[in-house]
Amino acid sequence: MEDSEEEQEEMEESDGDQEGDGAGDxxxxxxxxxxxxxxxxxxEELEMDQTxxxxxxxxxxxxxxxxxxxxxxxxxxxxxxxxLSMLLCAGTQAETAQANRLLVMRMHNLHGTRREEGDGExxxxxxxxxxxxxxxxxxxxxxxxxxxxxxxxxxxVTRVGDxxxxxxxxxxxxxxxxxxxxxxxxxHDSAIMATFLREQQKEATPLFTFTGHMTEGxxxxxxxxVPGRLATGDCKKHIHVWEPREGGAWHVDQxxxxxHTHSVEDIQWSPTEPTVFASxxxxxxxRIWDTRAPPSKACMLSVSQAHxxxxxxxxxxxxxPFLLSGGxxxxxxxxxxxxxxxxxxxASFKLHSAPVSSVEWHPTDGSVFASAGSDDVVGQWDLxxxxxxxxxxxxxxxxxxxxxxxxxxxxxxxxxxxxPQNSGVLICTALSGFNVFRTISV
Length: 442
Known about the structure:
Low-confidence stretches: 1-10, 12-24, 120-125, 390-394
Distance between the termini: 41 Å
Mean pLDDT: 89
Helix content: under 10%
Largest sheet: 5 strands, antiparallel
Shape: globular
Number of helices: 5
Number of strands: 29
């Protein structure tokens, strides 16, 4: 389609020229802004502290993508050296159903901030040719977009063998499975992209579609232990488990897993037990299920009042027996699954002044997690941090000492994910676009 190229917007990077403390030039001395403590006064504005970031880039994709997932690549693990690259799959929520797209994004040539790469200072002679150097370090973004009728609520990606698959929940009330290989080929090769733009801009055709939910939903997760196994939950309290079959098909048990009384908001498979998953709901509960039991009897453990209102999101720690939850009450709670029957979290934190919209444990560090809320704050946390007198030395008594970093500047933040292969890198999406960053804290 002709508009596909127009929707691709060049990725931008922070140039690091905003440093300075204002001292000696008549300007007001800058100070740290803590959300929820003191509101901005008339004439005040937030300015990013470049020295706090090791990497920072931002981009837009036309219509906002309010859900995305990371596609693993074959470039190695624990990547630290610039330039970095990454692959994402995202779904749009456009103004009309016909204008939506399922996107595969390739972000590459991602360099660190000037301070991180050691070129924040220099003489005039050293700065000669800086323009050419900055051009070489300019980040790049390739987009391969397929039309998708209906806004996309949530996207989750997995690989079955060599095939990358995306599970897509949409406002159509269906869950669809898409093969991402054509789009991935396109973002890696300009000739293939040209053919893709000419020939493959008709509406995306899914490998498989499940229409048994009868209403839309948001909860979806692929099993990390059984390739192709999927669980999906809808706004009418029903959960279905999918089992892969030969030939790119799935068998979906028509009997829903029964237990929740209101909308299922999120699902997380256990990283260690292939038949166990967790779910959370508007009914304020968190439940643990075992698929070896019949769906009507599969709920093995539950906390009925996990939060005082809707439980929006959960994340299962890959390294420790902990479950993390975030709710409409703005609270973040850590649950020790060995003590889940007691119904009490081992930790509870209040940072967000609005509903929590996303949480995720760090992929390798079992004590670190990220959170995002409708207050447009993205937080980095470390549970290993202890303090007998939280925050008083810094003059911030209301901040939990486990808060490492607060990232702001986006509008209507929806999801945040750690990149599993680029060390310490966070990606978050919002109405205002994507941010990709790494802080000095993680």
